[in-house]
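BUG: 3D viewer hangs when loading the predicted structure for this chain

Environment: internal workstation, default settings.
Expected: structure renders.
Actual: progress bar stalls at 90%.

Input used:
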Amino acid sequence: MMNLHQPVILTDKIPIGISLCCMGGPVRYNAKGFDMLANLGREKLDFVWCPVCPECMAGMGIPRDPVHLSNGTGDDVWEGKAEVKDRHGRLVTQKMIEGCKACMEALKRCNARVFVYMDGSPSCGVYRTTLKSTIRGNPPGTFGSLLLKEGYFLIPASDLQSPLKWWDWRRRMLAFLWLSDLPITSMQELYDVWYRLKFLCQELDNSWAREMGRTLAALQKTDFSAFEPKFRAEVLELLRRPSTTAKMTNSLWKHYSHYRKSRGKSVEEINSPDFRRGVTKIAEELLKMERTAVEDEYLFGASPVIYRDQRRLKPKIGAGDELEMET
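Structure tokens produced before the viewer hung:
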């Protein structure tokens, strides 16, 4: 395993599934769409996007009558207990099922394990299946149900409009994918993984993280095989949970203070938690701390796993396989 005091750097572009209407595709029932990726700017090129639309793949066409879930949730549709109907009451259940299956096959061919969904949709919605402000509908939607069952890391498209919320989703997504793929074959490797992720876990749920730390400290080598799957599953589940502005701000200052003390350097752009600024400014400070951490080979515990395009990295002279940022 790499130096524990440095960030993990992923260099392969991550495939991300997305509801096509959120990528600007005019595929909604009224032939409209939303460009939810516009605020990402050049960063959207860091990922491989796989846009899908269950209702289009169902063969319903554009424009079309809007559909809704009838007598149950998307889960119930898959169990044959509920139906999908259009506004005239016509059944489109089987069409929707086939459209969802076709989209899932496309996501798997793309190797996507992350999905940006349009909440409020009766097909892609996860926690809402209607856009009416006071009604949740019957969540999850038909495709949302399938995404949940397949264990996708799910990101609401609306959160891409906030630089701070997107930063939070991105750092947790990278940590989630890294841990999902990482072989852990010994107690020492388990401890090493926890060292990298514990600061982020403490930010997300301090009580849970403290208890996990005590459990690991008391663990015997003979407990490893039984405990490792439980550890992985619980950490992965925690990484799905968003943080808050206050938690992220305090975490930034905590890690920056440690960086300043251990490295004897300051970063002028970073302010203390009590400094009044908006979420866009906080996101800029967090990104600055991320870049500083990579350049100085420092583990920024709030964002322990970072993506960098291979072309932006070069071999570090005299350091074997270690990498450093180009300047």
